[in-house]
Protein backbone atom coordinates (compact mmCIF):
# COMPACT_ATOMS: atom_id res chain seq x y z
CA UNK A 1 0.00 0.00 0.00
CA UNK A 2 1.26 3.54 -0.73
CA UNK A 3 2.68 5.19 2.35
CA UNK A 4 0.89 8.53 2.24
CA UNK A 5 -2.51 9.97 1.45
CA UNK A 6 -1.00 12.06 -1.33
CA UNK A 7 0.50 9.03 -3.06
CA UNK A 8 -2.94 7.44 -3.27
CA UNK A 9 -4.54 10.66 -4.46
CA UNK A 10 -2.07 10.95 -7.32
CA UNK A 11 -2.80 7.44 -8.58
CA UNK A 12 -5.27 6.86 -11.38
CA UNK A 13 -8.67 5.39 -10.59
CA UNK A 14 -7.75 2.20 -12.42
CA UNK A 15 -4.60 1.83 -10.32
CA UNK A 16 -6.54 2.36 -7.11
CA UNK A 17 -9.24 -0.12 -8.14
CA UNK A 18 -6.48 -2.65 -8.82
CA UNK A 19 -5.21 -2.11 -5.27
CA UNK A 20 -8.73 -2.61 -3.94
CA UNK A 21 -9.15 -5.84 -5.88
CA UNK A 22 -5.78 -7.09 -4.64
CA UNK A 23 -6.68 -6.28 -1.02
CA UNK A 24 -3.73 -3.89 -0.69
CA UNK A 25 -6.04 -1.06 0.36
CA UNK A 26 -9.58 -1.14 1.75
CA UNK A 27 -12.62 0.98 0.85
CA UNK A 28 -12.62 2.40 4.39
CA UNK A 29 -9.02 3.50 3.99
CA UNK A 30 -9.80 5.19 0.70
CA UNK A 31 -12.78 6.94 2.27
CA UNK A 32 -10.45 8.22 4.98
CA UNK A 33 -8.15 9.53 2.23
CA UNK A 34 -10.80 11.51 0.32
CA UNK A 35 -12.30 12.90 3.53
CA UNK A 36 -8.86 14.04 4.68
CA UNK A 37 -8.19 15.64 1.31
CA UNK A 38 -11.61 17.29 1.43
CA UNK A 39 -10.76 18.80 4.81
CA UNK A 40 -7.43 19.97 3.40
CA UNK A 41 -8.60 21.79 0.26
CA UNK A 42 -12.36 22.14 -0.08
CA UNK A 43 -12.62 25.17 2.17
CA UNK A 44 -11.10 27.07 -0.75
CA UNK A 45 -12.61 25.13 -3.69
CA UNK A 46 -16.18 24.44 -2.46
CA UNK A 47 -16.56 21.45 -4.77
CA UNK A 48 -18.27 19.00 -2.39
CA UNK A 49 -20.56 20.93 -0.03
CA UNK A 50 -22.45 17.87 1.24
CA UNK A 51 -20.65 14.87 2.78
CA UNK A 52 -22.49 11.65 3.68
CA UNK A 53 -19.81 9.70 5.54
CA UNK A 54 -22.18 7.55 7.62
CA UNK A 55 -24.03 6.39 4.54
CA UNK A 56 -20.72 5.62 2.82
CA UNK A 57 -19.47 3.55 5.77
CA UNK A 58 -22.71 1.59 5.81
CA UNK A 59 -22.43 0.97 2.05
CA UNK A 60 -18.89 -0.32 2.49
CA UNK A 61 -20.06 -2.75 5.14
CA UNK A 62 -22.70 -4.03 2.72
CA UNK A 63 -20.62 -3.91 -0.47
CA UNK A 64 -22.06 -6.33 -2.99
CA UNK A 65 -22.50 -6.74 -6.72
CA UNK A 66 -20.71 -8.43 -9.59
CA UNK A 67 -16.90 -8.28 -9.21
CA UNK A 68 -16.50 -9.73 -12.72
CA UNK A 69 -18.25 -6.75 -14.34
CA UNK A 70 -15.77 -4.64 -16.41
CA UNK A 71 -16.93 -1.55 -14.56
CA UNK A 72 -16.61 -3.06 -11.09
CA UNK A 73 -15.29 -0.28 -8.80
CA UNK A 74 -14.56 -2.52 -5.79
CA UNK A 75 -15.43 0.10 -3.15
CA UNK A 76 -14.02 3.27 -4.76
CA UNK A 77 -15.49 6.44 -3.19
CA UNK A 78 -17.51 8.63 -5.61
CA UNK A 79 -19.27 12.01 -5.39
CA UNK A 80 -22.63 12.49 -7.16
CA UNK A 81 -23.79 15.73 -8.76
CA UNK A 82 -26.32 17.58 -6.62
CA UNK A 83 -28.97 17.34 -9.35
CA UNK A 84 -29.22 13.59 -8.77
CA UNK A 85 -31.17 11.96 -5.94
CA UNK A 86 -29.27 9.90 -3.38
CA UNK A 87 -31.52 8.19 -0.83
CA UNK A 88 -31.25 9.78 2.61
CA UNK A 89 -28.87 12.53 1.43
CA UNK A 90 -29.69 16.21 1.05
CA UNK A 91 -30.22 16.91 -2.66
CA UNK A 92 -30.72 20.61 -3.33
CA UNK A 93 -30.54 20.96 -7.14
CA UNK A 94 -28.62 24.14 -6.28
CA UNK A 95 -31.97 25.80 -5.57
CA UNK A 96 -33.45 27.36 -2.42
CA UNK A 97 -36.69 25.58 -3.38
CA UNK A 98 -35.05 22.23 -2.60
CA UNK A 99 -32.67 23.45 0.09
CA UNK A 100 -33.99 20.93 2.62
CA UNK A 101 -35.02 18.13 0.25
CA UNK A 102 -33.92 14.64 1.30
CA UNK A 103 -35.15 11.98 -1.15
CA UNK A 104 -36.30 8.58 0.05
CA UNK A 105 -35.06 6.77 -3.06
CA UNK A 106 -31.96 7.08 -5.22
CA UNK A 107 -31.84 7.78 -8.92
CA UNK A 108 -31.18 4.61 -10.89
CA UNK A 109 -27.75 5.94 -11.92
CA UNK A 110 -26.81 5.87 -8.22
CA UNK A 111 -28.22 2.37 -7.85
CA UNK A 112 -26.21 1.24 -10.88
CA UNK A 113 -22.96 2.69 -9.57
CA UNK A 114 -23.49 1.20 -6.12
CA UNK A 115 -24.33 -2.19 -7.61
CA UNK A 116 -21.03 -1.98 -9.47
CA UNK A 117 -18.95 -1.24 -6.42
CA UNK A 118 -19.07 2.56 -6.15
CA UNK A 119 -19.39 4.14 -2.70
CA UNK A 120 -21.22 7.48 -2.66
CA UNK A 121 -19.63 9.81 -0.11
CA UNK A 122 -20.53 13.36 -1.24
CA UNK A 123 -22.66 15.59 -3.46
CA UNK A 124 -20.88 17.89 -5.94
CA UNK A 125 -21.92 21.50 -6.36
CA UNK A 126 -23.89 22.73 -9.37
CA UNK A 127 -25.59 25.94 -10.48
CA UNK A 128 -29.32 26.22 -9.90
CA UNK A 129 -31.00 23.30 -11.70
CA UNK A 130 -27.76 22.88 -13.65
CA UNK A 131 -28.37 26.02 -15.70
CA UNK A 132 -25.25 27.88 -16.78
CA UNK A 133 -21.53 27.54 -17.34
CA UNK A 134 -20.50 28.95 -13.94
CA UNK A 135 -21.11 26.95 -10.76
CA UNK A 136 -22.71 29.15 -8.12
CA UNK A 137 -26.03 29.05 -6.29
CA UNK A 138 -27.88 30.59 -3.36
CA UNK A 139 -27.56 27.43 -1.24
CA UNK A 140 -23.83 26.69 -1.27
CA UNK A 141 -22.16 29.57 -3.10
CA UNK A 142 -19.38 29.48 -5.70
CA UNK A 143 -17.08 26.69 -6.84
CA UNK A 144 -13.68 27.66 -8.23
CA UNK A 145 -11.03 25.90 -10.27
CA UNK A 146 -7.95 24.86 -8.30
CA UNK A 147 -5.80 26.26 -11.12
CA UNK A 148 -6.74 29.79 -9.92
CA UNK A 149 -9.14 30.16 -7.01
CA UNK A 150 -10.40 33.51 -8.28
CA UNK A 151 -11.81 31.83 -11.40
CA UNK A 152 -14.83 29.66 -12.09
CA UNK A 153 -14.70 25.88 -12.34
CA UNK A 154 -17.24 26.10 -15.15
CA UNK A 155 -20.60 24.44 -15.08
CA UNK A 156 -22.83 22.87 -14.57
CA UNK A 157 -20.72 19.92 -13.39
CA UNK A 158 -18.28 22.38 -11.84
CA UNK A 159 -18.17 20.75 -8.43
CA UNK A 160 -17.39 17.37 -9.98
CA UNK A 161 -14.57 18.74 -12.14
CA UNK A 162 -13.05 20.79 -9.31
CA UNK A 163 -13.17 17.79 -6.95
CA UNK A 164 -11.23 15.72 -9.47
CA UNK A 165 -8.65 18.41 -10.18
CA UNK A 166 -8.06 19.07 -6.47
CA UNK A 167 -7.67 15.39 -5.57
CA UNK A 168 -10.94 14.90 -3.68
CA UNK A 169 -12.08 12.10 -6.00
CA UNK A 170 -10.72 9.74 -8.63
CA UNK A 171 -13.96 9.58 -10.60
CA UNK A 172 -17.14 11.62 -10.69
CA UNK A 173 -20.43 11.68 -12.54
CA UNK A 174 -21.88 14.71 -14.29
CA UNK A 175 -24.57 15.74 -16.72
CA UNK A 176 -24.47 17.63 -20.01
CA UNK A 177 -27.18 19.61 -21.81
CA UNK A 178 -25.29 22.53 -23.32
CA UNK A 179 -21.73 21.53 -22.41
CA UNK A 180 -22.05 20.84 -18.68
CA UNK A 181 -19.53 17.97 -18.76
CA UNK A 182 -17.20 19.46 -21.37
CA UNK A 183 -17.04 23.08 -20.15
CA UNK A 184 -16.00 22.36 -16.52
CA UNK A 185 -13.60 19.64 -17.66
CA UNK A 186 -11.84 22.24 -19.79
CA UNK A 187 -11.77 24.81 -16.96
CA UNK A 188 -10.35 22.30 -14.47
CA UNK A 189 -7.90 20.38 -16.65
CA UNK A 190 -9.72 17.04 -16.50
CA UNK A 191 -11.62 14.83 -18.96
CA UNK A 192 -15.40 14.97 -19.33
CA UNK A 193 -17.34 12.75 -21.74
CA UNK A 194 -20.83 13.42 -23.05
CA UNK A 195 -21.93 9.95 -24.23
CA UNK A 196 -24.61 9.17 -26.78
CA UNK A 197 -28.21 9.55 -25.55
CA UNK A 198 -29.32 6.38 -23.80
CA UNK A 199 -25.83 5.17 -23.01
CA UNK A 200 -26.39 5.92 -19.29
CA UNK A 201 -29.83 5.19 -17.84
CA UNK A 202 -31.41 7.89 -15.65
CA UNK A 203 -34.63 8.00 -13.59
CA UNK A 204 -36.55 9.86 -12.05
CA UNK A 205 -36.94 11.94 -15.19
CA UNK A 206 -40.24 13.58 -16.08
CA UNK A 207 -39.18 13.92 -19.74
CA UNK A 208 -37.90 10.41 -20.50
CA UNK A 209 -37.97 10.80 -24.31
CA UNK A 210 -35.94 14.00 -24.45
CA UNK A 211 -32.30 13.36 -25.30
CA UNK A 212 -30.56 16.73 -25.15
CA UNK A 213 -29.63 16.31 -21.50
CA UNK A 214 -27.60 13.20 -20.66
CA UNK A 215 -25.43 11.75 -17.88
CA UNK A 216 -21.77 10.90 -18.26
CA UNK A 217 -18.38 10.28 -16.64
CA UNK A 218 -15.55 12.60 -15.59
CA UNK A 219 -12.02 11.70 -14.52
CA UNK A 220 -8.45 12.94 -14.66
CA UNK A 221 -7.52 10.82 -17.68
CA UNK A 222 -9.16 9.00 -20.57
CA UNK A 223 -8.64 5.48 -19.20
CA UNK A 224 -10.45 6.36 -15.99
CA UNK A 225 -13.32 7.90 -17.96
CA UNK A 226 -13.64 4.60 -19.83
CA UNK A 227 -13.75 2.72 -16.51
CA UNK A 228 -16.57 4.89 -15.19
CA UNK A 229 -18.48 4.69 -18.46
CA UNK A 230 -18.31 0.90 -18.19
CA UNK A 231 -19.64 1.20 -14.63
CA UNK A 232 -22.45 3.61 -15.58
CA UNK A 233 -23.73 2.18 -18.83
CA UNK A 234 -26.50 -0.31 -19.38
CA UNK A 235 -30.19 -0.74 -20.01
CA UNK A 236 -32.90 -0.05 -17.41
CA UNK A 237 -36.66 -0.47 -17.97
CA UNK A 238 -37.45 2.90 -16.37
CA UNK A 239 -35.42 4.73 -19.03
CA UNK A 240 -37.02 3.98 -22.42
CA UNK A 241 -34.03 5.34 -24.35
CA UNK A 242 -31.44 3.29 -22.46
CA UNK A 243 -29.50 0.56 -24.24
CA UNK A 244 -27.50 -2.50 -23.28
CA UNK A 245 -23.82 -2.17 -22.49
CA UNK A 246 -21.58 -3.06 -25.44
CA UNK A 247 -20.13 -6.54 -25.64
CA UNK A 248 -16.59 -5.09 -25.62
CA UNK A 249 -15.81 -2.87 -22.58
CA UNK A 250 -14.91 0.75 -23.28
CA UNK A 251 -11.67 0.24 -21.38
CA UNK A 252 -10.51 -2.10 -24.13
CA UNK A 253 -10.73 0.75 -26.65
CA UNK A 254 -8.34 2.74 -24.46
CA UNK A 255 -5.95 -0.15 -23.88
CA UNK A 256 -5.78 -1.05 -27.59
CA UNK A 257 -6.56 2.21 -29.40
CA UNK A 258 -6.83 2.47 -33.17
CA UNK A 259 -5.53 5.73 -34.65
CA UNK A 260 -7.83 7.84 -36.83
CA UNK A 261 -7.01 8.26 -40.52
CA UNK A 262 -8.78 11.53 -41.27
CA UNK A 263 -9.10 14.23 -38.62
CA UNK A 264 -11.09 17.45 -38.98
CA UNK A 265 -10.23 20.52 -36.97
CA UNK A 266 -12.23 23.72 -36.77
CA UNK A 267 -11.06 26.72 -34.73
CA UNK A 268 -14.62 27.98 -34.24
CA UNK A 269 -17.18 25.59 -35.86
CA UNK A 270 -18.32 28.64 -37.80
CA UNK A 271 -19.73 30.10 -34.58
CA UNK A 272 -18.21 33.41 -33.38
CA UNK A 273 -16.21 34.39 -31.42
CA UNK A 274 -13.24 32.61 -29.75
CA UNK A 275 -10.20 33.72 -27.78
CA UNK A 276 -7.20 33.52 -30.18
CA UNK A 277 -4.92 31.92 -27.57
CA UNK A 278 -7.47 29.15 -27.00
CA UNK A 279 -7.64 28.55 -30.75
CA UNK A 280 -3.85 28.47 -31.09
CA UNK A 281 -3.42 25.90 -28.29
CA UNK A 282 -6.18 23.67 -29.65
CA UNK A 283 -4.83 23.86 -33.21
CA UNK A 284 -1.38 22.80 -32.00
CA UNK A 285 -2.92 19.84 -30.17
CA UNK A 286 -4.91 18.80 -33.24
CA UNK A 287 -1.75 18.76 -35.35
CA UNK A 288 -0.31 16.08 -33.05
CA UNK A 289 -2.49 13.59 -34.91
CA UNK A 290 -0.25 14.06 -37.95
CA UNK A 291 2.57 12.52 -35.90
CA UNK A 292 0.26 9.53 -35.37
CA UNK A 293 -0.17 9.09 -39.13
CA UNK A 294 -3.47 10.90 -39.66
CA UNK A 295 -4.36 13.58 -42.18
CA UNK A 296 -5.55 16.74 -40.39
CA UNK A 297 -7.76 19.14 -42.34
CA UNK A 298 -9.76 22.22 -41.40
CA UNK A 299 -13.42 21.26 -41.79
CA UNK A 300 -16.71 20.96 -39.88
CA UNK A 301 -20.39 20.35 -40.55
CA UNK A 302 -22.67 23.31 -41.24
CA UNK A 303 -23.72 24.57 -37.81
CA UNK A 304 -25.46 27.74 -38.98
CA UNK A 305 -28.77 28.21 -37.21
CA UNK A 306 -27.91 25.81 -34.39
CA UNK A 307 -28.21 28.46 -31.69
CA UNK A 308 -31.79 29.27 -32.66
CA UNK A 309 -32.60 25.54 -32.70
CA UNK A 310 -30.90 24.89 -29.37
CA UNK A 311 -32.52 27.77 -27.53
CA UNK A 312 -35.99 26.89 -28.83
CA UNK A 313 -35.70 23.27 -27.73
CA UNK A 314 -34.08 24.26 -24.43
CA UNK A 315 -36.94 26.67 -23.70
CA UNK A 316 -39.54 23.95 -24.23
CA UNK A 317 -37.71 21.53 -21.97
CA UNK A 318 -37.10 24.10 -19.24
CA UNK A 319 -40.74 25.17 -19.28
CA UNK A 320 -41.88 21.56 -19.05
CA UNK A 321 -39.50 20.72 -16.21
CA UNK A 322 -39.58 23.93 -14.18
CA UNK A 323 -42.65 25.94 -15.22
CA UNK A 324 -44.83 24.75 -12.34
CA UNK A 325 -42.18 25.62 -9.75
CA UNK A 326 -41.69 29.03 -11.34
CA UNK A 327 -45.37 29.79 -10.81
CA UNK A 328 -45.06 28.88 -7.12
CA UNK A 329 -41.58 30.16 -6.25
CA UNK A 330 -40.72 32.90 -8.73
CA UNK A 331 -38.79 34.90 -6.11
CA UNK A 332 -36.42 31.93 -5.59
CA UNK A 333 -35.36 31.55 -9.25
CA UNK A 334 -32.30 33.30 -10.67
CA UNK A 335 -33.04 35.67 -13.59
CA UNK A 336 -31.33 33.42 -16.14
CA UNK A 337 -33.66 30.56 -15.28
CA UNK A 338 -36.74 32.79 -15.48
CA UNK A 339 -35.64 34.01 -18.93
CA UNK A 340 -35.06 30.45 -20.10
CA UNK A 341 -38.45 29.20 -18.92
CA UNK A 342 -40.46 32.17 -20.16
CA UNK A 343 -38.82 32.16 -23.57
CA UNK A 344 -41.30 29.42 -24.48
CA UNK A 345 -44.08 32.03 -24.36
CA UNK A 346 -42.60 33.56 -27.51
CA UNK A 347 -43.02 30.27 -29.37
CA UNK A 348 -45.92 28.59 -31.10
CA UNK A 349 -46.40 24.86 -31.63
CA UNK A 350 -45.33 25.44 -35.23
CA UNK A 351 -42.10 27.10 -34.01
CA UNK A 352 -41.36 24.05 -31.90
CA UNK A 353 -42.06 21.72 -34.81
CA UNK A 354 -39.74 23.69 -37.08
CA UNK A 355 -36.98 23.52 -34.46
CA UNK A 356 -37.30 19.73 -34.27
CA UNK A 357 -37.20 19.41 -38.06
CA UNK A 358 -34.14 21.68 -38.21
CA UNK A 359 -32.43 19.60 -35.56
CA UNK A 360 -33.05 16.51 -37.64
CA UNK A 361 -31.13 18.14 -40.48
CA UNK A 362 -28.23 18.89 -38.12
CA UNK A 363 -28.12 15.22 -37.11
CA UNK A 364 -28.05 14.08 -40.73
CA UNK A 365 -25.38 16.62 -41.59
CA UNK A 366 -23.20 15.19 -38.81
CA UNK A 367 -23.76 11.64 -40.06
CA UNK A 368 -22.71 12.72 -43.55
CA UNK A 369 -19.62 14.42 -42.13
CA UNK A 370 -18.45 11.31 -40.30
CA UNK A 371 -18.61 9.31 -43.51
CA UNK A 372 -15.51 11.31 -44.49
CA UNK A 373 -13.83 12.09 -41.15
CA UNK A 374 -13.13 9.87 -38.15
CA UNK A 375 -13.16 12.62 -35.53
CA UNK A 376 -13.95 16.34 -35.30
CA UNK A 377 -11.82 18.60 -33.10
CA UNK A 378 -12.50 22.14 -31.87
CA UNK A 379 -11.93 24.23 -28.74
CA UNK A 380 -14.08 23.02 -25.84
CA UNK A 381 -14.57 26.59 -24.60
CA UNK A 382 -14.29 30.01 -26.22
CA UNK A 383 -12.14 31.39 -23.37
CA UNK A 384 -9.95 30.17 -20.50
CA UNK A 385 -11.53 30.12 -17.01
CA UNK A 386 -12.87 33.57 -16.15
CA UNK A 387 -13.54 35.46 -12.90
CA UNK A 388 -15.97 33.49 -10.73
CA UNK A 389 -17.81 36.74 -9.96
CA UNK A 390 -18.79 37.00 -13.63
CA UNK A 391 -22.13 35.22 -13.66
CA UNK A 392 -21.88 34.45 -17.38
CA UNK A 393 -19.62 35.56 -20.21
CA UNK A 394 -21.54 38.30 -22.03
CA UNK A 395 -18.91 39.80 -24.35
CA UNK A 396 -15.84 38.63 -26.25
CA UNK A 397 -13.72 40.28 -28.96
CA UNK A 398 -16.26 43.09 -29.24
CA UNK A 399 -19.14 40.66 -29.76
CA UNK A 400 -22.04 41.03 -27.32
CA UNK A 401 -23.68 37.70 -26.51
CA UNK A 402 -27.48 37.80 -26.61
CA UNK A 403 -28.03 35.56 -23.57
CA UNK A 404 -26.25 33.72 -20.76
CA UNK A 405 -25.79 30.55 -22.85
CA UNK A 406 -24.61 31.90 -26.20
CA UNK A 407 -20.92 31.76 -25.26
CA UNK A 408 -21.36 27.97 -25.07
CA UNK A 409 -22.43 27.76 -28.73
CA UNK A 410 -19.50 25.52 -29.67
CA UNK A 411 -20.60 22.76 -27.30
CA UNK A 412 -24.39 23.19 -27.54
CA UNK A 413 -24.19 22.81 -31.34
CA UNK A 414 -22.58 19.41 -30.83
CA UNK A 415 -25.32 18.50 -28.33
CA UNK A 416 -27.85 18.74 -31.17
CA UNK A 417 -26.02 16.07 -33.21
CA UNK A 418 -26.39 13.35 -30.52
CA UNK A 419 -22.76 12.41 -31.24
CA UNK A 420 -20.49 11.52 -28.31
CA UNK A 421 -18.08 14.31 -27.38
CA UNK A 422 -15.41 14.85 -24.78
CA UNK A 423 -13.11 17.58 -23.51
CA UNK A 424 -9.44 16.60 -23.29
CA UNK A 425 -6.84 18.79 -21.52
CA UNK A 426 -4.55 19.98 -24.31
CA UNK A 427 -2.40 22.80 -22.94
CA UNK A 428 -2.20 25.89 -20.76
CA UNK A 429 -2.29 29.61 -21.47
CA UNK A 430 0.55 32.03 -20.81
CA UNK A 431 -1.18 32.66 -17.45
CA UNK A 432 -1.07 28.96 -16.62
CA UNK A 433 -4.79 28.27 -17.13
CA UNK A 434 -6.01 24.96 -18.59
CA UNK A 435 -7.48 24.63 -22.07
CA UNK A 436 -9.66 21.76 -23.29
CA UNK A 437 -9.92 20.31 -26.78
CA UNK A 438 -13.41 19.17 -27.79
CA UNK A 439 -13.28 15.80 -29.56
CA UNK A 440 -16.44 14.59 -31.31
CA UNK A 441 -16.95 11.05 -32.56
CA UNK A 442 -19.45 9.49 -34.95
CA UNK A 443 -22.92 8.44 -33.73
CA UNK A 444 -22.66 5.76 -31.03
CA UNK A 445 -18.90 5.97 -31.46
CA UNK A 446 -17.74 6.23 -27.84
CA UNK A 447 -15.25 3.38 -28.14
CA UNK A 448 -13.46 4.86 -31.15
CA UNK A 449 -13.55 8.34 -29.62
CA UNK A 450 -12.01 7.14 -26.36
CA UNK A 451 -9.27 5.39 -28.30
CA UNK A 452 -8.46 8.54 -30.28
CA UNK A 453 -8.45 10.59 -27.09
CA UNK A 454 -6.13 8.13 -25.34
CA UNK A 455 -3.65 8.33 -28.22
CA UNK A 456 -3.66 12.12 -28.24
CA UNK A 457 -3.49 12.30 -24.44
CA UNK A 458 -0.27 10.29 -24.51
CA UNK A 459 1.41 12.96 -26.66
CA UNK A 460 0.28 16.09 -24.79
CA UNK A 461 1.92 15.71 -21.38
CA UNK A 462 -1.07 17.02 -19.42
CA UNK A 463 -2.00 14.00 -17.31
CA UNK A 464 0.49 14.80 -14.54
CA UNK A 465 -0.83 18.34 -14.00
CA UNK A 466 -3.69 17.18 -11.78
CA UNK A 467 -4.47 16.55 -9.00
CA UNK A 468 -3.09 19.82 -7.69
CA UNK A 469 -3.16 21.99 -4.60
CA UNK A 470 -5.33 25.09 -5.04
CA UNK A 471 -3.49 28.07 -6.52
CA UNK A 472 -4.47 31.45 -5.12
CA UNK A 473 -2.84 34.38 -6.98
Describe the protein's architecture and organization.
With 473 residues, the chain is of the alpha+beta class. The protein has one domain: Alpha-Beta Complex (Amidase signature (AS) enzymes). Helix content is 37%, strand content 16%. The protein contains 15 helices and 17 strands. The strands form five sheets. It has an eight-stranded mixed sheet, sandwiched between helices. A three-stranded mixed sheet has the order 1-3-2. A hairpin with a 2-residue loop joins strand 14 and strand 15. The radius of gyration is 20 Å and the shape is globular. The protein starts with a helix and ends in a 13-residue tail after the last helix.
* Percent of residues in helices: 25-40%
* CATH architectural label: Alpha-Beta Complex
Contiguous runs where pLDDT drops below 50 for at least 5 residues? none
Compute the gyration radius: what is it?
A: 20 Å
Span between termini? 35 Å
Question: Which strands sit side by side, in order, in the main sheet?
Answer: 8-10-9-16-17-13-11-12
Report the β-strand fraction as a percent range: 15-25%
Q: In the CATH hierarchy, what is the class?
A: Alpha Beta
Structural class: alpha+beta
